[in-house]
Design goal:
Helix content: 40-55%
Shape: globular
Strand content: 5-15%
Oligomer: single chain
CATH topology of the largest domain: Four Helix Bundle (Hemerythrin (Met), subunit A)
Number of strands: 13
Distance between the termini: 53 Å
Number of domains: 3
Number of helices: 18
CATH class of the largest domain: Mainly Alpha
Largest sheet: 7 strands, mixed
Structural class: alpha+beta
Length: about 575
């Protein structure tokens, strides 16, 4: 099945104080079917709001056009003041490929949007980043240089003629300003807070860190004469980190100076690396970092990577839940320094998850039991097997984490951390299979409900039932496979983990074996109804091998534990 194409759009509008206007502009995107508004992040001091929404490409282009149109109606750039560089009512409108689409394909949509806005709304459009049509326009700072105040002169300069829209400062343009549109990789807008009010010192730290660094000077690094190359351009001393842009500013709303970063490629420079290097630079300059602020949304993996980074520094196990890792990241980076940080509102995967999507694993233990005990046939033995397997490996993972923290075992923390990480991976896989088993059963029911009035409908119905039955056999097979493999964690922890938790490793092994046995029932029952006997025979043979391995592993673990207690 082809993966759905998803694009994220992150327009920044030049209004951060009037909530009525902000909401009118942001909410218009959800008038387009299929668009989900993810985040609206206003800043009073910058007088700027970052809006984030996501959807399929065509719908995103339509929604972005409506947003730019609404912003042009409600924002008057002739009256705008704010700390952040800007030159338009909708200042920037980047498109970001999220899934199923390349950056090259996204560029085509950026150009399509730019052409429509320029033609229909008569707003000057500059294409930047990957959508730029010449090298000097790739950098947003170049496109926006001079800001709104210099726009009248800029758009009449042949070298800076807009890519689309009017090249003259009309009455309409004087109100709307210009808009920069791009296709770019995921960018994190990230501010680091200082215990200072000095913009100059914040800028000095930004110059230390950002890739562009600072101009090289003779003598005094601040007031000395700039060193120029043979072409008359200033020679630059690069900063510490690649793929980082940054400036310093004073935020009246908070009464502090900040370094405002754009992390343009987090696979090159991560959020936690930018934060740590900023701390070092601040300390050298007699300042202290008090925390940081995330503008807009962030991928889950970036938060987990930050959690891992600080756990390693503390020589603590990495095999803990996502929730705990995120908590470590938030506290280590001080993301709650200025205001509360809510993961469900700031992490893109959590925001995308439908609040109406009912999942078994989100239920309380009591509700899960009640749901199972009810009149419906699902959840059934397959989901319960997956959940029992989840509980089993969770116990093994607990022993690994306890062992990683045992007094006197400091030299072994990494070894136990790796086992805990393995356990977490098995746990997450089995948790996903709890709901997937029920989904697989429902696919069979859906197949039987298909119409069968014509020969063609009968053929499609038979095919759907066969495919659904195969899938309903494959899912418990995956439960078997994962639960059996997870027993390696319990075996290792029984032999090498803290001996006070021997019984926990043993119970974990019993649960894993029960999961394998229970799922084996489902594989055998569902395989009986598969018409493709070659498929059925192969999966049954593989399942028997897994079952035998699980029984042998259980015997080894239980025999070892009985010998110890």
């Amino acid at each position: 099945m082809m993966q759905k194409q998803l694009i994220e759009c992150v327009p920044n509008i030049s209004e951060g104080r009037d909530l009525e206007k902000i909401n009118a502009i942001a909410n218009i995107v959800e008038t387009v079917e299929g668009i989900k508004l993810l985040d609206v992040d206003p800043g009073a001091a910058t007088n700027r709001t970052v809006i984030t929404f996501v959807g399929e490409p065509k719908q995103v282009i339509k929604a972005a056009f409506l947003l730019i149109k609404k912003a042009a109606q409600l924002i008057d750039m002739r009256k705008h003041k704010g700390e952040h560089p800007r030159f338009g009512a909708t200042d920037v409108c980047p498109l970001v490929p999220i899934s199923g689409i390349t950056i090259e394909e996204t560029v085509k949509y950026a150009k399509e949007l730019g052409e429509r806005v320029g033609k229909e709304l008569q707003i000057p459009i500059y294409l930047y980043e990957s959508a730029a049509q010449e090298e000097k326009r790739k950098n947003l700072a170049n496109c926006r240089s001079g800001e709104y105040e210099g726009l009248q002169k800029k758009i009449t300069d042949a070298a800076w003629k807009p890519d689309f829209g009017p090249a003259e400062f009309t009455i309409n343009v004087s109100k709307t300003g210009a808009t920069a549109i791009s296709a770019r990789d995921f960018l994190i807008a990230y501010n680091v807070n200082l215990n200072s009010t000095s913009t100059r010192r914040a800028n000095a730290i930004a110059f230390d860190i950002r890739e562009a660094g600072r101009a090289k000077r003779i003598g005094n690094p601040i007031t000395g004469k700039k060193v120029m190359d043979e072409n008359g351009n200033a020679v630059r001393v690069p900063g510490k980190l690649k793929a980082v842009k940054g400036i310093g500013w004073f935020i009246e709303e908070y009464g502090i100076a900040q370094i405002s970063y754009n992390l343009t490629n987090i696979s090159i420079t991560s959020m936690h690396e930018a934060f740590d290097e900023t701390c070092k630079s601040a300390q050298k300059r007699g300042l202290r970092v008090t925390g940081s602020e995330l503008i807009g949304l962030i991928p889950l993996q970036a938060m987990l990577d930050a959690g891992d980074f600080y756990l390693k520094k503390q020589e603590r196990s990495l095999g803990i839940s996502h929730k705990e890792k995120i908590k470590i990241a938030v506290k280590s980076l001080g993301l709650d320094d200025l205001k509360p940080f809510y993961p469900e509102e700031k992490i893109i995967e959590y925001v995308l998850k439908s609040k109406n999507q009912k999942q078994l694993i989100d239920l309380s233990l009591t509700d899960f039991a009640e749901e199972t005990a009810g009149e419906s046939m699902a959840p059934g033995g397959g989901s319960i097997s997956a959940y029992v397997g989840t509980l089993g490996v969770s116990l093994g993972t607990m022993v690994a984490n306890l062992s990683a923290h045992k007094r006197g075992w400091d030299d072994k923390w990494e070894e136990f951390s790796k086992w805990a990480e393995k356990g977490q991976a098995y746990k997450n896989r089995l948790l996903a299979l709890v709901d997937e088993d029920t989904n697989a059963f429902n696919k069979i029911i859906d197949g039987f409900r298909m119409p069968k009035n014509t020969n063609k409908e009968k053929e499609l119905r038979v095919e759907a039932i066969e495919n659904a039955t195969k899938y309903a056999t494959e899912v418990p097979f995956q439960v078997m496979e994962t639960a059996q493999q997870s027993m390696e964690v319990m075996l290792e922890m029984a032999k090498k983990g803290i001996q006070n938790s021997l019984s926990d490793a043993g119970v974990g092994a019993l649960c894993a074996r029960a999961a394998v046995y229970g799922a084996y029932f489902n594989v055998r029952i569902n395989a009986k109804d598969i018409k493709d006997r070659d498929f059925a025979t192969e999966i049954l043979e593989k399942a028997k091998v897994i079952f035998d391995k699980a029984v042998a592993s259980e015997n080894e673990i239980i025999t070892f534990i009985n010998g110890k207690i």
